[in-house]
Amino acid sequence: MFAESALVHSGLLSGMRVVYYTPWVFKFPPELWRVLSAFLLTGGGFSFVFDLYFMFTYASGLELNSPRFTQPGDFFTYVVFVATSILVSGGLFLGANVFTQSLMLAFIYTYAQDNRGKKAHFVILQIPVEFLPWAMLTLTLIMGGPHAALQQATGVFASHLYDFLTRLYPTFQGGRNYIQTPAAIKRYFGANTSTYTHRGYGTSFRPAQNIPQQQSRSWTSGFSSSWSGRGAGRRLGGD
């Protein structure tokens, strides 16, 4: 993000080479790098510094300390889901060309949900952290107008959708969490090796995990295996 934004704002790289534009992405040959580079371009001036600071602070805060992302690759899966939701809602429906502010607000919203009851700094004030996403959205509305605020709000939509599908719906409605980190991604991020992780509350040790390969099983084998591991029956009240 620093490298791309520095090149663009210094005039060494044209911003038109990195922003998202649907006809350029799906032309032949496709300019697929725009799908990623549109999430890495900060604003100019002071926004260059503040965007980098907020992105690093809240992204690293989630990756290292969030109770949601305890397994290898969980944070990566979250970023992919949130970025895809922003791309669809902001890029295809609202015509946005840069998604950095939306992604940053998504991180802040998830961070705020995980740290309810704490305080956060906003400009020169201290406010409850759960109000921080709405305060930043209000600031964007004042400085950038309704369209800029609507585009940035796609970050809140994406992170709330993730929260609903992975926590609210399974917990309170008894539904299934379909957003699971694939085994291949877990292995890529080191699920098969033991590591020490430095958390905000101390150091945690994660032993190596054996991730079995998924096998196709019929409904009969799935039913029988659930009972095959049971021991011999014993009559109540007997010797």
Automatic annotation (TrEMBL):
<dbReference type="InterPro" id="IPR007599">
    <property type="entry name" value="DER1"/>
</dbReference>
<feature type="compositionally biased region" description="Polar residues">
    <location>
        <begin position="206"/>
        <end position="215"/>
    </location>
</feature>
<feature type="region of interest" description="Disordered">
    <location>
        <begin position="205"/>
        <end position="239"/>
    </location>
</feature>
<feature type="compositionally biased region" description="Low complexity">
    <location>
        <begin position="216"/>
        <end position="229"/>
    </location>
</feature>
<dbReference type="InterPro" id="IPR035952">
    <property type="entry name" value="Rhomboid-like_sf"/>
</dbReference>
<feature type="compositionally biased region" description="Gly residues">
    <location>
        <begin position="230"/>
        <end position="239"/>
    </location>
</feature>
<dbReference type="GO" id="GO:0006950">
    <property type="term" value="P:response to stress"/>
</dbReference>
<protein>
    <recommendedName>
        <fullName>Derlin</fullName>
    </recommendedName>
</protein>
<comment type="similarity">
    <text>Belongs to the derlin family.</text>
</comment>
<feature type="transmembrane region" description="Helical">
    <location>
        <begin position="76"/>
        <end position="99"/>
    </location>
</feature>
<keyword id="KW-1133">Transmembrane helix</keyword>
<keyword id="KW-0812">Transmembrane</keyword>
<dbReference type="Pfam" id="PF04511">
    <property type="entry name" value="DER1"/>
</dbReference>
<dbReference type="GO" id="GO:0005789">
    <property type="term" value="C:endoplasmic reticulum membrane"/>
</dbReference>
<feature type="transmembrane region" description="Helical">
    <location>
        <begin position="38"/>
        <end position="56"/>
    </location>
</feature>
<feature type="transmembrane region" description="Helical">
    <location>
        <begin position="120"/>
        <end position="143"/>
    </location>
</feature>
<keyword id="KW-0472">Membrane</keyword>
<keyword id="KW-0256">Endoplasmic reticulum</keyword>
<comment type="function">
    <text>May be involved in the degradation of misfolded endoplasmic reticulum (ER) luminal proteins.</text>
</comment>
